[in-house]
C-alpha cells in the first residue's frame, strides 16, 4: 500500500535492461557518447521538434532551476502558482541558480494559475521602475501539484497572455507524461504548439532511476545552458546512464504506458474511496495524484496496517472523528491488490 509518491516506486525493468546495455565497455564522457545522441534524437522525435535543444540532468529540481536561470535575469521575478513545486519543494533552488530572481505567486482554482491573475500580475509588473524587480518568465506545472491538468485551451490562453507581455513560458513537466495521457494529446500539442518555450521533461517520477530532460523549443534560450549545467554541478561525467534511461522510456511509447498505468491506478483508488462513503475528495483527480480527507481513526488504522501516504495538513483536535487531509500518488507499478487492501481498511 505505497501511495506516498511516484518517486518511491521501482524502476521499470526495460529501463534497467537499457542501463545494463549501456554499461558494456567504454564510452566518451559528458554527453559525447552515442547513447546520448540517440536519446536527444528520441526527445526531438517525440516532441516533433527537430531543432529543439536538449540537455539531460539528474533531478527535476536541477531542470527547473537551471532552465529558469537561463530564461531570466537576477533582477526579475518568475510568475508561478502558489502551490508550484519551484515554490514549495525546491529549497530556493530557482532563486539560487538564477543569482537572486524572485518568485511571484499567483492564485487560481485547483492548483492552476487563473488567466485573470496572470494578466493582472503582468500588467502591473510592466510599469515598474528601476527600483523594482522586473517581470521575468512564467512557469506552469503540468500536471499540477494538486493532481489536476491544464487543458490545451487553458495552456494556450496562459501562454498567449505571457507572450503578449513579452514573457517566455517554462513548463515544469515532472508529470508531463501523466498529463499527456489524461488529455489524450501529443507531446507537441501540450508543449510548443501551446506556446511553451522550455520544458522540464520528467522521468524520475515515471519509472526511471533518475533522469530528466531540459528541452528548449526556443533554441536562443539555451545559448548558455551548457555552462550553467556544468557550473551548477549537474553535468554527469558518465552521461550515458542518464541517456539510456531517457532512450528506453521513449522507445515504443513506454513513457506513456507507464503514465497510463499510474493514472488508471489513481482512478481506481478514487472510485474506491468515493464508494466507502467515509472519504471526501478535495480536488478533481485528473492524473495520478489525489487528495482526500477522512477521520483520524481511519488514518490510525491505515498506518497501523502499513499504508504509506503523506498528510497534507490536519484539522486540529483530539477527537477520532476529526478529519485529516492526505495526498496519495500512484506510480506505474501500483498493484490492484494493494488498492483493495487499502480500501478494505475504511
Please give a structural write-up.
- This protein is α/β, with parallel strands linked by helices.
- It folds into two domains: 13-253, Type I PLP-dependent aspartate aminotransferase-like (Major domain) (Aspartate Aminotransferase, domain 2, 3-Layer(aba) Sandwich); 255-343, Aspartate Aminotransferase, domain 1.
- 39% of the residues lie in helices and 17% in strands.
- It has helices at residues 13-22, 34-46, 60-71, 85-88, 93-97, 115-125, 152-164, 176-183, 225-231, 240-250, 254-276, 296-304, 336-343; strands at 53-57, 76-81, 102-106, 134-141, 169-173, 198-201, 212-216, 280-281, 289-295, 310-314, 323-329.
- It has a seven-stranded mixed beta sheet with strand order 1-7-6-5-4-2-3, with helices on both faces.
- Helix 7 links the parallel strand 4 (134-141) and strand 5 (169-173).
- It starts with 12 loop residues before the first helix and ends with a helix.
Quaternary organisation = single chain
How far apart the termini lie comes to: 14 Å
Tell me the series of helices and strands, N- to C-terminal: HHEHEHHEHEHEHEEHHHEEHEEH
Helices, by number, come to 13
Helix proportion: 25-40%
Q: State Rg.
A: 21 Å
The CATH class name of the largest domain reads Alpha Beta
Which topology of the largest domain does CATH recognise? Aspartate Aminotransferase, domain 2
Provide the CATH architecture of the largest domain: 3-Layer(aba) Sandwich
Poorly predicted parts: none
Number of domains: 2
Structural class: alpha/beta
- Arithmetic mean of pLDDT: 96
Q: How many extended strands?
A: 11
- CATH H-level name of the largest domain... which superfamily? Type I PLP-dependent aspartate aminotransferase-like (Major domain)
Amino acid at each position: 500500500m505505497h501511495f506516498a509518491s511516484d518517486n518511491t516506486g521501482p524502476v521499470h525493468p526495460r529501463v534497467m535492461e537499457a542501463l545494463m546495455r549501456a554499461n558494456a565497455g567504454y564510452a566518451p564522457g559528458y554527453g559525447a557518447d552515442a547513447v546520448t545522441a540517440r536519446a536527444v534524437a528520441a526527445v526531438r522525435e517525440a516532441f516533433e521538434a527537430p531543432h529543439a535543444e536538449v540537455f539531460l540532468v539528474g533531478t527535476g529540481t536541477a531542470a527547473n532551476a537551471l532552465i529558469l536561470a537561463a530564461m531570466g535575469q537576477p533582477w526579475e521575478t518568475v510568475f508561478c502558482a502558489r502551490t508550484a513545486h519551484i515554490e514549495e519543494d525546491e529549497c530556493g533552488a530557482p532563486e539560487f541558480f538564477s543569482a537572486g530572481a524572485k518568485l511571484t505567486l499567483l492564485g487560481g482554482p485547483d492548483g492552476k494559475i487563473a488567466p485573470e491573475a496572470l494578466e493582472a500580475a503582468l500588467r502591473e509588473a510592466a510599469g515598474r521602475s528601476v527600483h523594482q524587480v522586473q517581470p521575468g518568465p512564467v512557469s506552469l506545472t503540468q500536471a499540477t501539484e494538486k493532481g489536476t491538468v491544464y487543458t490545451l485551451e487553458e495552456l494556450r490562453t496562459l501562454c498567449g497572455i505571457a507572450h503578449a507581455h513579452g514573457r517566455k513560458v517554462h513548463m515544469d513537466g515532472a508529470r508531463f507524461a501523466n498529463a499527456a495521457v489524461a488529455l489524450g494529446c501529443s507531446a507537441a500539442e501540450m508543449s510548443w504548439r501551446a506556446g511553451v518555450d522550455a520544458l522540464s521533461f520528467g522521468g524520475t517520477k515515471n519509472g526511471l532511476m533518475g533522469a530528466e530532460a531540459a528541452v528548449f523549443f526556443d533554441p536562443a534560450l539555451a545559448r548558455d545552458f551548457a555552462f550553467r549545467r556544468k557550473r551548477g554541478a549537474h553535468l554527469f561525467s558518465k552521461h550515458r546512464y542518464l541517456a539510456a534511461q531517457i532512450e528506453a522510456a521513449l522507445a515504443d511509447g513506454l513513457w506513456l504506458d507507464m503514465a497510463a498505468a499510474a493514472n488508471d491506478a489513481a482512478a481506481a483508488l478514487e472510485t474506491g474511496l468515493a464508494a466507502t462513503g467515509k472519504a471526501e475528495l478535495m480536488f478533481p483527480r485528473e492524473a495520478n495524484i489525489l487528495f482526500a480527507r477522512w477521520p483520524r481513526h481511519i488514518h490510525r488504522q491505515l498506518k497501523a496496517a502499513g499504508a504509506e501516504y503523506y498528510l497534507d495538513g490536519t484539522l486540529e483536535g483530539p477527537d477520532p472523528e476529526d478529519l485529516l487531509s492526505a495526498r496519495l500518488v500512484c506510480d506505474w507499478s501500483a498493484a490492484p491488490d494493494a488498492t483493495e487492501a487499502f480500501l478494505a481498511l475504511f
